[in-house]
Please model this.
Amino acid sequence: MRESLVQIGALVGKEFRLEWRQRYALNGMLLYIVGAVFVCYLSFNARRGQLAPIVWNTLFWLIQLFTAINAIAKTFVQERAGRQLYYYTLASPQQIIVAKIIYNTGLMLVLALLGFSVYAFVLGAPVDDVPLYIGSLLLGAVGFAASLTLVAAIAAKAENSATLMAILSFPVMLPLLLLLLKVAKNAMDGLDRSASSDELLTILAIDAIVLALSYLLFPFLWKS
Model:
């Protein structure tokens, strides 16, 4: 168990080092977030506090969804076949998928919090229960990372991986996105947290199921 954790930590560190060497990808994601927020500001001609809360919430989660797809789509595409074979000799497929999910979760947390900060600064933040809203961001980051990492692994086996990634990701992400929208809207309205308990439990269940499926199914995909 200890050796497995050490190998997972080494794989996660490798992901961070690769991202740091290829900072253009991370810079592109940051530019995408800022650009999307600025386009929303210009398109709606909105000032701070003038955008309807439901529109504010919907736009924010759409930006988060497309940011997640663009950020995680390259997870396995950037790995060449020779490098994947080398990883196959060093670590188990379970360790590899866990390391990928941990890294993508951390990346999504950074992008989500940064996106929320920029979005709230430009368009205001009509949120009454900020801790609950941040909590929905954290659960969404885990769900997006786990779901899209497995989808990216499947799409990487195809020639046109970008198109397949977009096709496969939306049906998987739609139920999770609808639940996150509802929880975030309750947080904006300042409703009692018990009103969101069912949705939060469902989101936790979805995250757990996706994580378990990724852990169980990825070895078969990796061996192919």
